[in-house]
């Protein structure tokens, strides 16, 4: 795996991790705080603006296919 793909996957991981952390926090609490409401708003805004997640996923997919075609994969 080259550095380009590692960087894209790392950014995807970080983005998903932050989103899941907010959702896990919401599910584990019996009450909603203003901080949680702000975080949910931030996630929604990110999704509405077409966050970099979608582009990173497309680029990581393309790079993975390119590497497979070139026989660069390591199991």
Classify the beta-strand content into a percent band: under 5%
Number of discrete helical segments: 3
Q: What gap, in angstroms, lies between the N and C termini?
A: 10 Å
The class by helix and strand makeup works out as mainly alpha
Note poorly predicted spans: none
Count of distinct structural domains = 1
User: What Rg is obtained from the alpha carbons, in whole angstroms?
Assistant: 16 Å
Order of helices and strands: HHH
Q: What is the percent of helical residues?
A: over 70%
Let me know the average pLDDT. Answer: 83
Profile the largest sheet.
none
User: Given the C-alpha coordinates, what overall shape results?
Assistant: elongated
Number of strands: 0
Q: Would you write up a description of this structure?
A:
The protein is mainly alpha-helical and 75 residues long. The protein has one domain (3-70). The chain has helices at residues 3-28, 34-48, 52-70. The longest helix has 26 residues, at 3-28. The protein is elongated, with a radius of gyration of 16 Å. The termini are close together. The model has no long low-confidence stretch (mean pLDDT 83).
Sequence-ordered SSE layout with sheet pairings:
Elements: H1 3-28, H2 34-48, H3 52-70
Helix pairs in contact: 1-2, 1-3
Task: Name the descriptors.
75 residues, mainly alpha, 3 helices, 80% helix, 0% strand, elongated
């Amino acid at each position: 795996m080259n550095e380009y793909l590692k960087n894209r996957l790392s950014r995807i991981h970080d983005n998903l991790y932050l989103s899941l952390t907010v959702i896990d926090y919401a599910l584990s609490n019996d009450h909603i705080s203003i901080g949680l409401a702000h975080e949910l708003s931030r996630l929604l805004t990110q999704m509405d603006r077409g966050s970099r997640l979608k582009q990173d996923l497309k680029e990581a997919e393309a790079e993975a296919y390119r590497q497979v075609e070139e026989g660069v994969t390591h199991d």
